[in-house]
Amino acid sequence: MLQSSLTNQIEAGVDEAGRGPLAGAVFAAAVILPLGYENEKLNDSKKLSLKVRLALRKEIERDAIAYAVAEVSPQRIDEINILNATYEAMNQAIEMLHIKPELLLIDGNRFRTHLTTPYECIVKGDGKMMSIAAASILAKTYRDEYMQRLHEEFPNYGWNKNAGYPTQLHRQMIKQYGVTKYHRITFNGANTAGELLQAPLFDIDR
Fold first, then answer.
1. Of the candidates 100, 28, 95, 36, which has an alpha carbon nearest to the alpha carbon of residue 63?
2. Which domain does 174 fall in, by range?
3. Is 3 contained in some domain?
4. Residue 141 shares a structural domain with residue 160
């Protein structure tokens, strides 16, 4: 079972979804759970089925003291790069919380912020801390729903299944149809559709 908290302070778990795709916004969520909160089903969102993620999202939104989800657009990603865009989304989500946290628990090994709130980076934190796991579930489910909406506008790319990641189908469709307004043209240093096709293959159309 994941750990509920590190301290007796008001802790906000923070995580992102969508750093690796070729298309779509990057999302981040911040979640403050009640002190001593327990939910044995909470885990890293990537280890959960869609059905379980959606059920847990309802529980998180019901039980959390505060939560927020933010997104940063593909155009902004191209402007400032994906790492900075991820930080920006995380900071936005934190600032959107209606309760000010006393400690931030950040998934990963680094973070950049203009906020004065203390933070601790936790590698693979979404599999260790409940609040980070909760944030990972919100970020992923909100982003997947967003990619479903984009899929309805551009159905050829399979975004309803691959969420914008560089799967074989997605790369084939870029080759056939070119890029859309939702593609991150600067992915991995690319600035043309041809260079975008060189992105490392993500081998599952989920």
1. 36
2. 154-196
3. no
4. no
